[in-house]
Amino acid sequence: MFRNARxxxxxxxxxxPAAMLLLPAVPAFAQxxxxxxxxxxxxxxxxxxxxxxxxxxxxxQQKGDRSGEQPSSGITLLERMGTSLPPLPPExxxxxxxxxxxxxxxxxxxxxxxAKALPRAEAGDAVAQTLVAEMMMRGQGIAHDAxxxxxxxxxxxxxxxxxxxxxxxxxxxxxxxVTRDKAKADEYMRRAAEAGNASAQxxxxxxxxxxxxxxxxxxxALPFYEKxxxxxxxxAQYAVAQLYLAIHDLPTDKKAKAREWLERAAKAGYDxxxxxxxxxxxxxxxxxxxxxxxxxxxxxAALRGNVVAQNKLAHLYINALGTRPNPVxxxxxxxxxxxxxxxxxxxxxxxxxxxxxxxxxxxxxANRFRRS
Length: 372
Fold this sequence. Notes:
- This protein has helices at residues 12-15, 58-63, 77-80, 100-106, 110-122, 126-138, 146-158, 162-174, 182-194, 198-211, 215-230, 234-246, 252-255, 258-267, 271-283, 291-303, 307-319, 327-339, 345-353, 356-368.
- It is built from 20 helices and no strands.
């Protein structure tokens, strides 16, 4: 038996972008797509520093320039979620009404689910309307019908269903099956966020930052990023980590948790968070330096295909930071990042200075590389 529960459309994150807006030039946020954002491809990202060294241009770090951001091949939000979660508490006995349509949907009986949900949807049941919309959008138990799904999402959104408000807001932003309406989209996104939808909370935070330049927007957005992060949205966890350092007058206890939030996003598989985790440990950002941990996280991000991490990993091998010096490995990672479009004059000089046999080994290793 299944309880009468609202359809939690976490799967919708894979079907629709986690965020539909680009953030302005503030410290590296998750971008408006379901893929992660890497460091700028035009430069080398944040400089790796040995202990005691300082950046050549500290003001550039304070400004957090991300003008050259490019989408990486980061994995989807669904794939990044659900890592190292605590066990669920014992389920309490339920004595409420049973939702037979949703129960059939959970068991994969889509035709049965649609037959039970459609009459309720036509009678104005918002939960059933959301279920019908989801099945139409996915072609489950019925032919794929995106326009029909948009209609039912709109009906459920008008009746206040959080999942439907989030989906319909995205549809209104895109303007594909309905007339584009940003004001209405923002209103539904806000209402869904305030109703507790985690993906809507992240998106509404993005909207607040975009519509309110400067620190004002960051402060308005932070509570929604935090709520979304608590529910496991890795993009939000990454944003919280960045904002805890970027906003100047936050309480000390919050700033102290910046690295903790970044690590949660990194452990969930977010490649940009893994890159930053490596940089933070190597450069002592948000806590003590730890070259060994910095190398470990940089290598994880590099193995996942993050181009900037591949570039930085080459530097770590050359400078023996967190690892033994290895010219072949350094050259391999440089070759991979160079092929991906990230030039580096210092690494080019290093590469040209090693033995021809080492260059050959590096190229062969780069040719064998497959993203983990």
